[in-house]
Amino acid sequence: IETIMTSSTATLRFCLSTHGDSILYKMKDLREKHCFCDVTLLLGSPNGLAGLPYHFHGHRVVLAAQSDFLRDQFLLHEGRAELSVGVVTSVRVAKTLLMSCYTGILEVYCFSSFSLSLLFCYNVQSMQHFCKMEIDWKQ
User: What's this protein's function (predicted)?
Assistant: First the structure.
């Protein structure tokens, strides 16, 4: 609690220390229930096989806050409910990174080529341009 004093008034300011985590948790829960999702990202096809792309339902504001690339795509394709992200070389990596936008947590198994690639992408790019990376994500 912080008290702000001016010449004529006093104001109490409450800082909710868990507000950010609480909002992320609620957004993740809403995303999982497909509530208020305003964009569907079409991510390649599972395991690199020919077929239908994976559909990631999300919220533009959450994804744009984490990725300049996605923010730019949303601005370029404003109003579109579906957006193809064809530059993703691994659906598994993309799903993991996108979910970290909602959890603030990036969890991978240690010492696998997948985890090393993912950590490289996450640390070096800080989620800003993960869709642009053309790294061989083979396991």
Answer: May be involved in transcriptional regulation.
Looking at domain 32-132, does it have CATH number 3.30.710.10? yes
Task: Tell me the domain boundaries of the chain.
Answer: 32-132
Half-sphere exposure at residue 3, Cβ-oriented, CA atoms within 13 angstroms: 3
Q: What is the pLDDT of residue 59?
A: 96
Positions in the chain whose pLDDT score sits under 70: 1-7, 45-51, 87, 108-139
pTM: 0.68
Residue 29's CB is within 10 A of a number of other CB atoms, namely 11
| Collapsed DSSP state (helix, strand, coil) of residue 42 | strand
How far is 25 from 31, CA to CA, in rounded Å? 10
